[in-house]
Design goal:
The protein is mostly helical. It has helices at 11-18, 32-48, 52-56, 61-75, 89-104, 107-131, 140-157, 161-181, 194-226, and strands at 78-82, 85-88, 189-191.
């Protein structure tokens, strides 16, 4: 089946895709898509404010700027890849970045990044099933908690932004692909829904924040030793 642009999908599909809520406690609800967009906007503001080294790490500055600038134009596009599946532009954009980074890595870095991705995915699935009984199923709280854990673990595997992008992308996309490979009966597989976008951005934010804190702690420790 040829790729169908997202606007051709039904209004019900669009609502389900982007307006699932990250939290329901106390009646407060925030769409997953809005969560992802908020983190992207925060990253863009930090970027133009001069926090390029903290955000990009070892990545080329121009490439990061282009990626960030193009993200909102692709994030809200969905493409049908079968009668019961659709893939989001944000997934395509993230996977493209991860593939390019893998290609440019050394053999050792590539093995580390791939191992980190598989490990974070496995750990994320396990933690999800542990938390689901505590938070009434796969709620927004579960998604946020698991995404933060994935990002933190990715930062332990490697402090380079390239390794973290590959790890977080793999960890979040593999369960999405499984929904496509083995979908539930009469259920459409949304690969890269608003929930996935929120999980990816939360995971990356957690990874980069953890790296920043590690580096800051190392600088403080070095300063104290000099004294």
């Amino acid at each position: 089946m040829p790729l169908l642009p997202y606007p051709l999908m039904s209004a019900g599909g669009r609502k389900r895709l982007f307006f699932a809520h990250t939290t329901r406690k106390g009646g407060g609800r925030m769409p997953f898509g809005l969560t992802a967009s908020s983190i992207w906007l925060s990253a863009a503001i930090l970027w133009v404010s001069g926090w390029k080294d903290e955000l990009a790490g070892d990545l080329p500055r121009r490439a990061v700027a282009i990626w960030l600038g193009a993200w909102p134009f692709l994030a809200w596009r969905m493409f049908a890849i079968g009668p019961k599946a659709a893939i989001g532009g944000a997934v395509i954009w993230a996977v493209l970045a991860a593939v390019i980074l893998l290609w440019k890595m050394s053999d050792d870095e590539r093995r580390i990044a791939l191992s980190a991705g598989f490990f974070c995915c496995t750990l994320g699935v396990m933690v999800t099933y542990l938390l689901m009984p505590l938070f009434s199923g796969a709620s927004g709280t579960t998604v946020v908690a698991v995404s933060v854990i994935i990002g933190w673990i990715a930062s332990l595997w490697g402090k380079r932004a390239s390794v973290q992008i590959v790890a977080v992308t793999m960890a979040t996309i593999m369960p999405e692909i499984w929904k496509w490979v083995a979908p539930l009966e009469n259920e459409r597989a949304w690969i890269g829904s608003g929930q996935w976008m929120a999980a990816w951005w939360i995971g990356m934010a957690a990874a980069r924040l953890a790296t920043y804190l590690y580096n800051a702690a190392a600088q403080v420790r070095a300063f104290v030793r000099k004294e």
